[in-house]
Design a protein that fits this description.
Distance between the termini: 21 Å
Number of helices: 6
Largest sheet: 8 strands, antiparallel
Oligomer: single chain
Number of strands: 11
Strand content: 25-35%
């Protein structure tokens, strides 16, 4: 089992749901007893409705044509996958239940029920809050930012471990950047048979990439004020 997670200063469920929807490239759709998967087939409106480009002969199109008016006709499932390879790479799942109708040769899906499942558990998101929410401003850039941090600045990642409680680094084998949003950076702490996540909160939210750079520099400066801590010192002998 993983460690208990510290989600200090994190995004709310509605914002997190909109971020998952904004960045997911694929979705699975269940309608009229059939399940289909689509890649690059959806776009999102400002209020969180989903436009789907699907073949006219698909089961989903048939369900939209045959379903009684006003009844939920489909469930859309999206997965939030960490851009950096880690254990249990899926960070969250989003399920939208709602109605389908045709619009300009595409299907328009209007959510009536929104469920977000994170490692801490599942949350039922109020549809009005979901519609009013916006994706995290760093969501679209997150994959590029995290892969750059992991591939080009491993020294910075290790330096940031100085901000992690020592007990969370016992027998650590690897530390990897797992997620970043305007509120903070999450590190994945891996051991031989377990893992946990630690949240490093920013002093104020970052609304764009330039502000994120400043927030990261502030964290690194804060880490530099501590005592150096080599990851190798916290590896158990059996993990070498």
């Amino acid at each position: 089992m993983g460690d208990t997670q510290d989600w200090a200063a994190g995004p709310g469920a509605a914002e997190r749901a909109r971020s998952v929807l904004a960045t997911a490239w694929s979705c699975a759709v269940t309608a009229d007893g059939a399940r289909e998967e689509y890649v690059g087939a959806h776009t999102v409106t400002g209020d969180g409705r989903v436009l789907l480009d699907v073949p006219e002969d698909s089961a989903l199109s048939a369900a939209a044509l045959c379903a009684p008016r006003g009844e939920p006709t489909a469930v859309l499932e999206f997965a939030d996958v960490a851009p950096v390879p880690v254990r249990r790479r899926i960070r969250a799942r989003l399920w939208l239940t709602g109605r389908l109708c045709g619009r300009d040769g595409r299907l328009l899906f209007e959510p009536t029920r929104v469920v977000l499942r994170r490692p801490s558990g599942a949350v039922l998101v109020d549809p009005a809050e979901y519609a009013d929410a916006r994706p995290d401003p760093l969501a679209v850039a997150e994959a590029r930012l995290l892969t750059h941090l992991a591939d080009s600045h491993p020294d910075a990642v290790e330096r940031l471990t100085r901000l992690v409680p020592p007990e969370s680094l016992h027998a650590v084998t690897r530390v990897t950047p797992l997620a970043v949003d305007r509120h903070g950076l999450t590190l994945r702490i891996e051991r031989t048979r377990a893992h946990g996540d630690v949240r490093l909160a920013f002093h104020t939210p970052a609304d764009d990439v330039s502000q994120l750079t400043e927030r990261m520099h502030a964290l690194l400066t804060q880490a530099g004020a501590g005592c150096p801590r080599s990851l190798q010192r916290h590896r158990a002998d059996g993990d070498r």
